[in-house]
Amino acid sequence: MPAPARQAGMRLRASLASVGVAAIVLVACSTEPQPSFDLVAVPTQSPGSLFEAFGPAGCPAALLEGTIVRHEEAGLAVDNDPNFPPAVVAWPHGWVARDLDGVRELLDGSGNVVAREGDHVSAGGGFYPPNDRFHPCGEITFIAAP
Questions:
Q1: Does residue 107 share a domain with residue 49?
Q2: Staple 126 to which of 5, 36, 53, 60, CB 3.0 to 4.6 Å?
Q3: Both 76 and 129 in a single domain?
Q4: How far apart are alpha carbons 142 and 77 in whole angstroms?
Q5: pLDDT digits over 10-43, tens only?
């Protein structure tokens, strides 16, 4: 076999070996168990809501405090009085919930976990028709459950 043909054959075998190793690594990585989660829709405020237009000065003076609980229709709600049903919250635009390993989590618009069911929440805002959901504005404070 002439030298150029032998060199081409060696390069081809080296390339095939590299592809084989890459395929094995890819398969090994993809067989690791990935966390299983389901996204859960939660009510959110519209982009450019009234609160954004007026800034912090336009934030109503009501305060909602309580424990984040799983809610059948709204995904998550805030339980603050055992004599009343949990308050449904219109979370900031882009937020969503997910179920991960049996725990419902609240994620902000960037996908960061901000709270989990059982955590304490405190937010200023107000309840608004037509659905009387609590619309937080300003800072929302979460305290992780012990």
A1: yes
A2: 60
A3: yes
A4: 13
A5: 454 444 444 444 434 444 455 665 666 789 999 9
Tell which residue, 109, 110, 128, has the closest CA to residue 64.
128
Counting the structural domains of the chain, the total is 2
78-92 residue pLDDT tens: 999 999 999 999 999
Q: Which amino acid is at 89?
A: V
**How far, CA to CA in Å, does 98 sit from each of 38, 42, 134?**
5, 10, 20
* Separation in Å, CA 129 to CA 31, 42, 83, 126: 49, 17, 22, 10
Instruction: Report the distance separating Cα 84 and Cα 17, nearest Å.
Output: 67
**Residue 129 gets which letter from DSSP?**
T
pTM higher than 0.90:
no
The answer for residues whose C-beta is within 8 angstroms of residue 34's C-beta and 6 or more apart is: none
Q: Measured between alpha carbons, how far is residue 139 from residues 3, 34, 45, 59, 92 in Å?
A: 73, 33, 15, 10, 11
CA 95 to chain centre: 6
Residues 121, 83 within the same domain: yes
- Do 48 and 67 fall into the same domain? yes
